[in-house]
TrEMBL record, chain A:
It comes from the Bacteria. It is found in: Cell membrane. It comes from Micromonospora marina. One of its GO terms (cellular component) is plasma membrane. PROSITE patterns: CYTB_NTER. The lineage of its organism: Bacteria, Bacillati, Actinomycetota, Actinomycetes, Micromonosporales. Residues 517-543 are annotated as: Disordered. It is a multi-pass membrane protein. It catalyses: a quinol + 2 Fe(III)-[cytochrome c](out) = a quinone + 2 Fe(II)-[cytochrome c](out) + 2 H(+)(out). This is Cytochrome bc1 complex cytochrome b subunit. Its main location: membrane. Pfam families: Cytochrom_B_N_2. Residues 527-543 have a biased composition (Basic and acidic residues). The chain crosses the membrane at residues 42-67, 113-132, 144-164, 209-233, 264-283, 335-356, 376-395, 415-433. Its cofactor is heme.
Automatic annotation (TrEMBL), chain B:
It is found in: Cell membrane. Residues 1-21 are annotated as: Disordered. Keywords: 2Fe-2S, Cell membrane, Disulfide bond, Electron transport, Iron, Iron-sulfur, Membrane, Metal-binding, Oxidoreductase, Respiratory chain, Transmembrane, Transmembrane helix, Transport. Belongs to the Rieske iron-sulfur protein family. It is a multi-pass membrane protein. This is Cytochrome bc1 complex Rieske iron-sulfur subunit. It holds the Pfam family QcrA_N. Residues 279-345 form the Rieske domain.
UniProtKB/TrEMBL annotation, chain C:
It is a multi-pass membrane protein. The chain crosses the membrane at residues 31-49, 255-274. Binds 2 heme c groups covalently per subunit. Keywords: Cell membrane, Electron transport, Heme, Iron, Membrane, Metal-binding, Repeat, Respiratory chain, Translocase, Transmembrane, Transmembrane helix, Transport. Its main location: membrane. Its EC number is 7.1.1.8. InterPro entries: bc1_cytC-su, Cyt_c-like_dom, Cyt_c-like_dom_sf, Cytochrome_c_Oxidase_Subunit. GO terms for cellular component: plasma membrane. It holds the Pfam family Cytochrom_C. The cytochrome bc1 complex is composed of a cytochrome b (QcrB), the Rieske iron-sulfur protein (QcrA) and a diheme cytochrome c (QcrC) subunit. One of its GO terms (molecular function) is quinol-cytochrome-c reductase activity. This is Cytochrome bc1 complex cytochrome c subunit.
Amino acid sequence: MKRRKFDAAALPAKSARAVDDRFQVATPLRKLLNKVFPDHWSFLLGEIALFSFVVLLLTGVFLTFFFEPAMTEVIYNGSYAPLRGTPMSAAYASSLDISFDVRGGLIMRQMHHWSALLFMAAIVVHMLRVFFTGAFRKPRETNWIIGSLLFWVGFLAGFTGYSLPDDGLSGTGLRIASAIILSIPVIGSWVSSSIFGGEFPGTIIISRFFIAHVLLIPGLLVALISVHLGLVFKQKHTQWPGPGRTNSNVVGERMFPRYALKQGGFFMVVFGVIALMGGLFQINPIWLFGPYEAWVVSAASQPDWYVMFLDGSTRLMPGWEISIPIGDGYVIPPLFWPTVVLPGILVGLSTMYPFLEARRLKDYKHHNLLQRPRDVPARTAVGAMAVTFYIVLTLSGANDVIADKFQISLNAMTWAGRIGLLILPPIAYYVTYRLCLGLQQHDREVLAHGVETGIIKRLPDGRFVEVHQPLTSADGHDGHPPALDYVGWVVPKKMNRLGALGPAIRGFFYPIEKPAEAPVSPGHPPVEARPEREEIGSGESRR
Amino acid sequence: MSTHTEHQAQQGPEPLDVNDPRLSRFDVVQEGARRDDIEIVHYEPQVAPGSKAERRLTRTVALMFLLTGAFATAFLVVYIWWPWQWEPGAGGDKLYTPLLGVTLGLALLGVGFGILTWGKKLLPKEVSIQDRHDQVDNPEDRKITGETMLYLADEMGVRRRPLLGISLLAGLAPVGAVAAAPLIGGLIEQPHKNNQMFTTGFHPAEGGRKIRLIREDGRPIRPADVSVGGQLTVFPGIDGGVSNLHADSPTLLIHLREDDAQKSRAANERKGHGDYMWGNYVAYSKICTHAGCPASLYEQQTNRLLCPCHQSQFLITDNAKPIFGPANRPLPQLPIEVDEEGFFVAKSDYTETIGPDFWERP
Amino acid sequence: MTSDNDRRRGLLARLRGRPVARSRGRRRLGAAVRLFAALMLAGGAYTVFAPGVQAQDNPPLTAAGNEGKALFDVSCVTCHGRNAQGIEGRGPSLIGVGSASVEFQVGSGRMPMARQEAQAMRKPPVFTDEQVRQLGQYIQELGGGPQVPGGDLREGANLSTGGELFRINCSQCHAFGGGGGALSSGKYAPSLAPASDRQIYAAMLSGPQNMPVFGDNQITPEEKADIIAYIQETLKHDGDPGGFNLGRYGPSTEGLAIFLVGIVALVFASLWIAGKS
């Protein structure tokens, strides 16, 4: 029998053909590969969250191999001498074992915790980008809502994870969580005893939190993230205005090869930064906290940073109780307002914002071009107000640490937070609004009169004027350059920025390089735009 | 302004024959992009093949990949041979995790920046423009789909036969409840079983025997065991008294100075708690009435008790009344006395509800 | 008698304690220094010229006690009054506080105070160990009180008992890591980092300022040894296995770190990635 020669080079093509014969994937795959993504650094912020989520999954799976989600009492007998002989829950003992008796377990734990903090931080930063640039507008309201939900689901994931080791600090957090649940009117005590399986702390909460933390919440996160990304893919990414960029196109790079390569590299960078932080910065040293005991507490008991704003609101709330004198009497504790009502309002306001704004502006059009924050002063100012509110609350969540380390009276810090929470947001609104208007005006001035050169000229009549470099050639009426229209993108404000908006040759470390000779390789002939593309008006005038 | 419209994009130039042997691979790719409404308007190699710049960049990327290999190997070496077991002191084992982090981090950064440099510097720069098509795809399709859905409803005849719809809803509602029932039914717990929210471990045992105050190691407490101006965390002397089973029972026993004790006694009397103190000793619940943290930062000169979680401050000499912060209710006081053997006992259980507030607290 | 040298050192310590402003601040300072010098002179002259007055009121002092009394009359009498009886509104009576209290307050530089404030701060001590011992002896002989025992204060200590006792009695104010924490209205629990064995022991015995008293009746000397060992060995001597400890301030500095290090580094990375090449 004749042996056919095996041709390795033909293998990929052959197997690809075989696959396409069966599944007919060539056309959908071509459409998938041919996808243009706009390039801007701020579009990578969401990716940080996505990649840290991947790291969370990887490290989290490792941790589950060693963690024992049980509250049965054991006597610790591991490597860490200062706790040997101490009675503690199995959950805490196994967390100690991960830290001290599993080789490399501590760095996994620390990477898991750091990536959780990074996940939440990146979500917030990404959300700010989306908000301030108006990327949430129609048709992307759904994705905005999913994004806000991701923050809250991530919040739950973080809190349940923070509680699992059952150490002194997390137990205190759990105690406060139970008090928050208790404070809900009418059903509070029922909900609390149902969750904790009786009176706090009970013996089941860790195993319940465990299944929520490793299955239910990550499942929800994966689902939400998938939909989030799917919608970005379907609706295509927003882009900044600029030369050639319109509301109905995307200008950027095709996904393959360059864009995807950059994404892969960025994932490695995020992973690397998390690994560095996990190794170099100690986080949550549970061995110092001891096991959770209801009578043990530490000064400076704080939750992780993304929960701190709720801790802050709780600290600032005055002790106002509402008593309802019916029957034996009923109460709504002061804890209810800052921990249940406030987050409720925040969820509602943040998810509904796109619709509120559209309604206010009566703007129901599709928007694929981003807005510079200065061009929408009202929204930017509202955002600044919200950010100020959040920052005051978060700082108040750490007000005892601040008071201690900067030697300020604790009571003064509380009062400063109370007053600051009321007056700083409106101030932030006003200041931001004025700043936006000022920046807008400056843009318009530069467009009309040109860039300030710093050259002072004395006129024949003795006056001094500064020479402006007009942005266009002086071919308008009576020798003056024509005024340019503002098109929503950066206006050069300094002489050395002139011409920097186009594809200039600039590097990160070497500011100006010799322009590379653009050699034309035979395989890559210079491409020409289709005729109908050539007339690109919107950006051209500013160059 | 752009003269381009949706319509023109679809007509475009004539589609290329991709089987034309004269076409380069790039031509085919470009044609494919065009079919997906992508116009590659700018495609320019950043470095000339064989140029000095290309060789330099190639070397840089290769170096990064090799560094990754080196650091990954270093990671393995550290992982296997570095002493990692915890030892007292500040020895080499404390460097284990930092070393793992640095080697792993640098390995990942190496491969990351290698790939990034490859993509950013070596691949051709391009600017492509893709049409969005996020307007209504095809009004006719919309109409057809809409009509199809309505046709479905028509055929089922829900309008004509309302009974079917109503009975279906009526039938499905309990099915929904069936799905929820095991979850709710399994989880739900009566919060007031054994009156647990209103009693603590200090509740007198069977036969009215008073419960002793004990320390964390189980020893009962004599008055002489607490220093003047001192505080002691005490627990009910029952089974599991010093455990999280009785998370609401930890109590702070304070031995006040003479003048502070007088103030405290006067305040007690005003509140009708005249006999709650024993000598100069007071006992207040350690569980904050705000959020349940142990409020235990006792300032022995000002007699304030601070809770570290939300900074509520209670004045011990005035029935532990909240004087600052978010708490609104005084800490409950435990009435104490000394039994015939000379140990502290609780006269009765707390007369107020312990811990954070809830709706039905009387 | 106090030598000139000692007096100058005391002055310097006082001056170091306050922010030195130029011009007006300095003039005020000058006035304070002159007043202080005058007071010292007066006090010194008084002790020189009227040595026999107290000797009649009190039992005779030992040699060390006499030395301590001399130091007291120069540096402490302004606030604590003659024979350490205390002066209303300025300084409490020291009768019965014992040498433990002196050892803690003077040995850690908290006394003499730089100025009246919410709480005395730890400063470089004004007196030498020997002088502190003499002062302590004087106060001890005046009215008795708790004393720090000699010898090794951590002998036979058990770390895990110490840890348990630390968490139940100390961590609420000094924090799990021993870094200290805020108390009400500007008061604070200090960091335990600079505290010596004897100072920790003395603080527990005497309950300085707002710290509750943990007498030997309440926490036995053996338990004190456990606590001291836990603080000194586990909290202070043992290295952090997880890398730099961020000051052990808990989640607040961790949150700061994720933004200042993590987010900043990655934003720079994205600027580079998306930047024009």
